[in-house]
Write a structure and sequence with these properties.
The protein is an alpha/beta fold. The protein folds into two domains: about 170 residues, Glycogen Phosphorylase B (Rossmann fold), CATH 3.40.50.2000; about 150 residues, Glycogen Phosphorylase B (Rossmann fold, 3-Layer(aba) Sandwich). The protein contains 14 helices and 15 strands. The strands form three sheets. A seven-stranded parallel sheet has the order 3-2-1-4-5-6-7, sandwiched between helices. A six-stranded parallel sheet has the order 12-9-8-13-14-15, with helices on both faces. Strands 10-11 form a two-stranded antiparallel ribbon. A hairpin with a 2-residue loop joins strand 10 and strand 11. The radius of gyration is 21 Å and the shape is elongated.
Length: about 350
């Protein structure tokens, strides 16, 4: 099958979308499909990861029309009016993957409403049930993949000296402040706690790390929190293999949360916000607390500080991770492509 893949976001940008795009493109290539990736993200000369397929950055109208003539289907990572029209002109089946909420407010622009209409007229796929509902309940849910080549158990299970880990951008929506307040509560109860923070954020050209260090110190946690700054995927995976608990304390309704899958695959206990799509990512294998509620997080986290690590050979957990391997997710999308093309497909392939 010839798959044109379009995404506004790609490496060297950070975030989940570039990771998902690369994982799916490479998986389809390995499965014998032809893939062309078109992205509106320019290269910056860095050694950022690339996909294994031909990649056209900042595509021209001629590039888009050429891809539309060539492909059997187009897979669009988040609806883009600027990149979808040539494929609609050539009447190619359009599979749109929703990765974030539809902003359903009175101030929604005409272009945003057009996006919603196009998405409803295509063959939409949402990364979680909460995202599917925000786009009007159209389409199906296919959860996002994680990189099992990077995030996995150590060759031999070693002692995990680090108690609690946070991985994410240092913005308020990711909830690090909630986690710090929860740790202050546990510390006041006499619990021995230590947190390692992976991530950074630059605002107006300056890192926000000093601000977060000051916030930790104001809560009496200066000696109990280690800020590591930004790390690459391999370094993050190593941190996860040395941590006992990964906390994903997002205050907003996270659309999915690949980091929860990465933590489970690395053998961590995972504690995550209950709202949004994190329950799709963590399933019944994570523990949950009310978004933004530090007291509830402390209540959930406290008993886990000394709890045994999860059984990584548990069949149900292994099955959950298997369903989110890149190859498995790519196969589900291919079944959806066949359905969009009118090919006979077993419904079970999409519902599995």
């Amino acid at each position: 099958m010839k798959i044109a893949m379009t995404s506004r976001l790609f490496f060297p940008l950070k975030g989940g979308v570039p990771v998902i795009v690369r994982l799916l493109a490479n998986a389809w290539q390995r499965q014998g499909h032809e893939v062309r990736l078109l992205t509106r993200t320019a290269a910056d000369g860095s050694d950022a990861p690339e996909a294994d397929c031909p990649t056209i950055r900042m595509p021209t109208t001629a590039d888009l029309l050429s891809a539309a003539r060539w492909c059997d289907v187009v897979f669009q990572m988040e609806v883009s009016l600027k990149m979808i029209w040539p494929f609609m002109l050539f009447r190619r089946p359009c599979i749109i993957s929703h990765q974030t909420h539809f902003a359903d407010t009175p101030q929604v622009s005409l272009s945003r409403n057009m996006q919603r209409w196009i998405a409803a007229c295509s063959h939409p796929v949402a990364c979680s049930e909460v995202i599917r509902k925000s786009w009007g309940g159209h389409g199906i849910v296919i959860g996002n993949p994680y990189d099992e080549a990077v995030f996995h158990l150590p060759g031999e299970e070693e002692a995990r000296p680090n108690q609690v880990l946070f991985v994410g951008r240092l913005v308020r929506a990711k909830g690090l402040d909630v986690l710090l307040r929860a740790l202050a509560i546990l510390s006041a109860q006499g619990r021995a706690v230590h947190l390692r923070v992976v991530g950074d954020e630059v605002q107006d050209g300056a890192s926000l790390l000093p601000e977060w260090r000051q916030e930790a110190a104001s809560l009496g946690l200066a000696e109990k929190v280690t800020f590591l700054g930004g790390r690459n995927s391999e370094e993050i995976a190593e941190e996860m293999r040395r941590a006992r608990i990964l906390v994903v304390p997002s205050t907003w309704q996270e659309p999915f949360g690949i980091v929860a899958l990465e933590g489970l695959a690395s053998g961590c206990r995972v504690v995550a916000s209950a709202g949004g799509g994190l329950k799709d990512a963590g399933g019944p294998f994570a523990s949950y607390f009310e978004n933004g509620n530090a007291e509830d997080l402390a209540r959930v986290l406290g008993p886990l500080l000394e709890a045994p690590l999860p059984d990584c050979e548990d069949a149900a957990l292994c099955g959950h991770l298997e369903r989110h391997r890149a190859e498995a997710v790519a196969e589900k999308f291919v079944s959806h492509f066949h359905a969009a093309l009118g090919h006979p497909v077993a419904c079970a392939a999409l519902m599995a």
